[in-house]
Amino acid sequence: MSKNSKVLNLKDKINDNEMDLSLCNLSEVPVRELASFTKATVLDLSCNNIASLPPEFCNLTHLVKVDLSKNQLTCLPDDLGNLTSLQHLDLYNNKLTLLPVSFSQLRNLRWLDLKDNPLEPNLAKAAGDCLDEKQCKQCASRVLQHMRVIQEDADRAREKRLLREKEIEKKKEAKQREREAREKEARKREKAEEKEKRRKEYNAQMEALAAREQQKKKSEEKKKKKAQAAAGKKVPVESPLKPRRSFLRLVFRLLLLLLLGLAGVAAVCHLTDMKKEAMCVPVTVAVDNGLLWAGEQQDALRRLVQSLSAALRDFLESSQASKN
Known about the structure:
Blueprint: H1 10-13, E1 14-15, E2 18-20, H2 31-34, E3 42-44, E4 65-67, E5 88-90, E6 111-113, H3 121-127, H4 133-271, H5 281-296, H6 298-323
Parallel strand pairs: 2-3, 3-4, 4-5, 5-6
Antiparallel strand pairs: 1-2
Helix pairs in contact: 4-5
Pfam families: LRR_1, LRR_8
Main location: endoplasmic reticulum
Transmembrane segments: 250-269
């Protein structure tokens, strides 16, 4: 509730469908209280000190006639066009220079007085003098037409602004898409370069590994060839002699064992008391005959010993070589 309504009893100000608040020294319009009196379609606020109308005043859509003459109004609410039922509007003797663009929406307005306002030239020309009823009606018609032109210009300007903003937005979006496309292409190129780098590194590793394997294989083949060459040199020398030497060793060992056995038996029979035994008599005779023969065949025996020594030396050398 406004401070003016505290000293006003609006019920005392209403008569049928008219709410008379003129000459009440009001500086504000009691919009909230007026909203409850929807049957009061005529509102007289003349001869007060009202400098502006609150935006909520535009919600009083039941108003048909409004008198705001002889106040201090410098402007009207932007949504004044919401008062679509308004037919009569008196704005005489205020401080108005312009009207809101929505004024063109007061399609039922039939009477308008804008005298004694510092209107801008084009609006003052459209308003005219308003000296009588006819001129006030013409004023309403001409001002509505003038405001419709302004409304159309404002709509076109708004459409141009919206189109310009839309074009700007489209350009921004296009630039954004181009930037995203470039970034995407750059990321794709980086991934491809990284993949190519990894592929080259992998190929280099594989080539190095293959080279090491090839080198290792060549080294093994070289060692194998050397081993085969070394083995090939030994085989022709040892292979034909090995069977013969093995056989000779066996025969020599048998003869040596036989001689050692005979020598042992002869020594036992000749040097002990068993030489008189029956089994030693032939051995003793054979030993005596052998010694006698050996004395006679000294030269031949020397040659035999030399041959046996040579054979024994060859045998020992061949045994040492086979061990190595």
